Every structure is written in structure tokens, then in C-alpha cells.
Amino acid sequence: MVTVVITWATQKDDAVCPICKAIDGYTWTFEGEVPDSLTHPTYGVIWDIVTGSLAHEHQLHKGSKYGLISNCRCHIEPRFDLKELLDKLTHLRDSIKSTSEGKV
Predict the structure, then answer these.
(1) What is the pLDDT of residue 58?
(2) Dihedral sign, CA of 22, 24, 26, 28?
(3) What distance in Å separates the CA atoms of residue 18 and residue 10, rounded to the nearest whole number?
(4) Mean pLDDT, the chain, whole residue set
(5) Strand-by-strand arrangement of the 44-48 sheet
(6) Nearest CA among 61, 53, 63, 87 for reference residue 40
(7) Which of 63, 32, 59 is nearest to 44 (CA)?
(8) At 82, is the secondary structure helix, strand, or coil?
(9) In 3D, which of 45, 42, 62, 41 has the Cα closest to residue 53?
(10) What is the pLDDT of residue 50?
């Protein structure tokens, strides 16, 4: 399985909301399949595949003076090792090839 690392990132300026500032640089690491949502230990689910960033929703529920943040510019940065992925694909191809050659 391929390892995927996802990092929460911001623009690191004054327009970034307090929650995103607090979790800037937080990383999740997954082997294989990446889940449909990302959970932070303090803020709970802060991103999902349907909505995107939910970090600003937490501020609304806590009565933040910021209200709904529309210019925060937070995002997730997924990374994986391309060599690891290519090695896995090569192994899969070789496995399929040897299986199909055995049936001929």
C-alpha cells in the first residue's frame, strides 16, 4: 500500500482564521485508502470530501466573533512518494503478467 501524507496548510497571514492558524502544519498519515474526512484531536472533523474545510463551521458553533470565514484560504496538501507508487504498480503489473502467462 502507498503511504499518503495530508497536511493542513494556510497562507500564514492575518486573514487566516484562529482555528486554521492553530492547526497549520498538522498532518495525517494513511496507508492505502484515504478516508472521506479528516479529524483533528481538538476540533473533530475539520474537512470532508463533500464540503471541503469544516474548520470555520466550528467557529460558528462556538459563537466566534469571526462568524463565517470566507477568505481564510486554508487547504489540504496531499503528498505521496511517487517511487513507492511506481514500485507498487510495477509489482502489480508483473504479478498480472505472470498469472496470465501461466494460463496460456
Answers:
(1) 54
(2) positive
(3) 11
(4) 82
(5) 37-40, 44-48, 52-53
(6) 53
(7) 59
(8) helix
(9) 45
(10) 87
Distance from C-alpha of 48 to C-alpha of 97, rounded to nearest angstrom: 38
Encoded amino acid at 20, one letter: C
Q: How many CB atoms lie within 10 A of CB 70?
A: 7
- Rg of the chain (C-alpha set): 19
- What does the pLDDT average to over 25-34? 92
Q: What are the residue ranges spanned by the domains of the chain?
A: 3-102
- CA-CA distance, 104 to 50, in Å (whole number)? 46
pTM over 0.90: no
Judge contact between 71 and 16, C-beta under 8 A.
no
What single DSSP character describes residue 6? E
Asked whether 104 and 26 are in contact (CB, 8 A), the reply is no
